[in-house]
Design brief:
6-stranded parallel β-sheet, 34% helix, 212 residues, 8 helices
Length: 212
């Protein structure tokens, strides 16, 4: 199987995430896309995030009835900082028969050399870099860091531009504004019922999709 791996905090998951996953599934011919919520994202030091149980619950609500979209608890169960290379190594140990495709935003490609063991990441997975209505990024920084062979390990995926972010959703909830049509109704109801994001007066900027 070709399995897409989509990591992030998903705090909360929204329609932009779902569209990104679907475009990768279709264009990269993936059998399934796994959403992998990070236990402790390395690129968000000191930034508060919702408890793991809430982020997983929202993912499960959003993906219910979608057999080609799954939730993985691999990083939640490992705990600690969620380094991509560690997750990929563990997946190769437990599921050596599968091929893995790492899903990131195309704008994060320039940050890939700063991730932990980028060359090893490109050995363990191909990369689906999603170009969200922007000019395709240069591969030069990656080539300089890990070599020319990385060209064969990166596929650019096009998707319609959609201006949604979890940061904006959290800010809207905190200020009492509507998040209707930004995320699924079941997720919005969960946010309301569990009173999430009501104590976030100064939301942090949404980081790129890069995961160190």
């Amino acid at each position: 199987m070709r399995i897409g791996l989509f990591g992030g905090t998903f705090d909360p998951i929204h329609f932009g995430h779902l569209l990104m996953a679907e475009q990768c599934r279709e264009q990269c011919q993936l059998d399934v896309v796994r959403f992998i919520p990070a236990f402790q994202p390395p690129h968000k030091p000191g930034v508060p995030i919702s408890p793991a149980k809430d982020r997983i619950a929202m993912l499960e609500l959003a993906l219910a009835g979608e057999p080609k979209l799954e939730v993985s608890r691999i990083e939640m169960e490992r705990k600690g900082k969620s380094y991509t290379v560690d997750t990929l190594r563990r997946l190769h140990e437990t599921e050596p028969e599968h091929e893995f495709v790492l899903i990131i935003g195309a704008d994060s490609l320039t940050d890939l050399p700063t991730w932990r063991e980028p060359a090893e990441i490109l050995q363990l997975a191909t990369i689906a870099a999603v170009n969200r209505g922007r000019t395709a990024p240069s591969l030069d920084p990656i080539i300089a860091a890990v070599g020319e062979s990385c060209r064969q390990r990166i596929q650019l995926v096009d998707m319609p531009a959609i201006d949604l972010s979890a940061t904006d959703i959290r800010s809207r909830v905190a200020s009492g504004r509507s998040i209707r049509y930004m995320t699924q109704r079941s997720v919005a109801m969960y946010v309301k019922q569990h009173r999430l994001y009501l104590t976030t007066p100064n939301p942090q900027p949404e980081p790129k999709d890069a995961r160190s």
